[in-house]
Structure formats: structure tokens, C-alpha cells
């Protein structure tokens, strides 16, 4: 971005008594944008939010009537590239901003809310969230039920509150708040309220020795087909008889990454950042500051030019390492989380923990060793489907697109 562009907003007047500077510079903007267009139409930068294409006369009329869309000081839809500095300045304020209303608006695109069919459970949960986002906690506040619960759950996660501690806090708040109030009474009710915000995960039983997954065509097997060990824990009852329980010896937690990748494009802000690797402007091309500067990235581009052409196609890195969830002094037990990292994002975002997607939790108590590939089967199958392409909604251009996602890098965390 060149000079200060506050004129875009300071010089515009709702009564169309625009300043001379605004008129002159708006005309320069329109002439410049159309000089770069090959179809005699450009994206309208007014309340259309750069989503609709119009001719020169219509764009001029719309700008005079509605002004520029807020915060459009870098003209990324009219010939300018994303500014690295602008991205970094935005990310300085990434935390601590309540974007609940924005997120719910974007989540609507995930569901066909205009359908005349019976609403799915996911849609029903979404409408419950909408209601909670509009319902005040009590009649003497503007804080909504959803805002309160999400903030309190975030504090719980940040400071490691136990569930019992959370329940006691809710009881205290319930005694202090004026009646009647909408506060959930405990952790269970809070999680039930927020269920629609989360992503589904699957529990997959595995062999005690990690030989196989009791999954898909083998989901009804009672014993491992390789080592013969029982799938479920056996106990001795009061009569001295051996009884098979319904509790598996081991379970793999699998969280699909496809819904999370699709949700990145539901946000206009994130959809813009997901193009950074191709359309972003770097300050120093001599220094490797992002995986897109590396040889592996460029080799993939040359291997599949069609894939490389669309900046929305996602490059994914996988990383894993073992850790002891019960501390160093507890019994020897380690589990192995596997993370997926979308590399499309700019350097200031792609290594933030918010964008490191937990996709597998491989149970211990020991390293899976060469059988790690067995544990990765669900993720590998999902990555193969992603490589074929999936339908997603791009909220930046308000269009569906078919995106692909290869795995660029697999590594062990240090």
C-alpha cells in the first residue's frame, strides 16, 4: 500500500456531499482498476464487499451511494498484493477479540439453511447457538449466554481448571447473578450448549499390541486377526467367571481435518490468508521465511502445475512426538499426538497453535514403533480423499470451489 488512504472514509458523506479529494481519488481508483481489467468489469468495493462484478458506471454509482467497504486500504482485488506488514499488524491484535457474531455468520454457509427438508442435527445445534448468541445472560446485562460460556470455557482451558472447579464457579455465579438468569448449572450443560461449535471425533478400538484397527470391515471383530489378543478387557465377576466387558484395551482418537480446513475458507479474513503463499508480498526474496520458499514446495508446483495454479489448494505438514500426559514423576506412560499444519498461511500465522490441528491421539503406554503406520490409516485415507479434491465454500469470493490438499512434509517434533 502506498500513501495514507483514510481519504476513502473521511471524505465520503452519507448525504453524497463528498470532499473534492474523495471524488478525485475515487475516480483515480476506478480508472486504475479498469485499466487492469480484461473484461470491462471489476469487483465493486462498496457494501458488495468485492463479491460482485459491475461495469464502470455502476461501480461509480455504488461508491457514491455506499462508500468503500470498511478496512479496504490494501486493494487486493484491484491489482495490489497483500502486504506482509499489514498481516503482521493485524496479527498483533489476533488474540483477545470477540468474533462470535462473525463466526456464527460464517458457519451459516456450512449448512443449507434455506432447505425445505427436515433440519439435520447439525443445523438444529446451529440454531440453538444462534439463540444463545442473542439471549442475554439476565435482564440487566447485554452479555449474551453464548459469549459468557465461551469466555469462561476459554479461561478454564488457559488456566487448567478442573471440572469440579468449573462446577463450583458456576454454582457461585448462579448464586450471585440476579434471578431469573440463563446460566448453565455445570460443565455438562456448558458443553452441551457449545456442542455445535466443535468438530466431531471418532474413537477407534485398536489391538493391545497395535497390530490392527477394529475399523471399517474389521469393526465387528472380537480378537486381533494377527496376534489373537482380545479386543475388550476381561474381568472376573463375583462368581469367579471370566466376563468380557465392552471396554476396549486401547482406543485411537481420530479428528478429521477436512471440516476444519473447509471452515478456514468460511471466514473472509482466513480465506484471504490462505492465499498468502502465492499472492502475498515478501519483503526479502533472498531469505527463506516460509515453506513456499523451499525446494520441496517448488517441486510439487512443477509436478502438478494445475494444482499450483489455484492458491486455495492447501499444503499440509504433519508432525508428531510423544509426551507424558501425567507428568515426568508419574507412572511411565506416553501417548503420541499427530498434528496437521496448513502451510498456506503467512509466517505470522502458520505456526500459531490455533492452526496446528490435532488429528490423532495415539495411545501408549509405549512408542508404537514400526506400527505407527497402522495408527495413521484413518488420516492417510482422509489425505487421499483430499488429494482427489473436495467441495468447499470460499467466502472471500462467495463461490463454491473444488480444492485439493497434499501432504508436503512429515516430521517429528523436537
Description:
This protein is α+β, with helices and mostly antiparallel strands. It has 17 helices and 14 strands. The strands form five sheets. A six-stranded mixed β-sheet has the order 4-7-11-10-9-14. A two-stranded antiparallel ribbon has the order 1-2. It has a two-stranded parallel sheet with strand order 3-8. A hairpin with a 4-residue loop joins β12 (390-394) and β13. α2 (20-36) runs antiparallel to α3 and α5 packs antiparallel against α6.
Shape: globular
The SS-based structural class is: alpha+beta
**Assembly context of the chains:** single chain
Number of helices: 17
Percent helix, as a range, is 25-40%
Q: Span from first to last CA?
A: 39 Å
Biggest sheet statistics? 6 strands, mixed
Q: Strands across the major sheet, in which order?
A: 4-7-11-10-9-14
The number of distinct structural domains comes to 4
State mean pLDDT (0 to 100 scale): 80
The percent range for strand residues is 15-25%
